[in-house]
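Example (one chain per record):
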Amino acid sequence: MVKVILDRDLCCGAGQCVLSAPDVFDQDENGIARLLVAEPTPEQHDDVHEAALVCPRQAIDLAD
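Predicted structure:
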C-alpha cells in the first residue's frame, strides 16, 4: 500500500498533481494542493507516482 504525503508549505500551486491524479489531489481556493485520498487504491498508484514526479517543488512524497 502506498501512502501519499503532501507538504502544503512547499506547494506552489502549479496543479500538475491534479492533472495527473484528479481522484487523489485537488486545489484549495488559493491554488494550493490538498489531498482527497491519503492511501490511494492500487489502480491510482501509477497516477500518484506520476504526480510526485511532475511536482515542480517536490511537495509530494510517497511511503510504502
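Caption: The longest helix spans residues 45-54.
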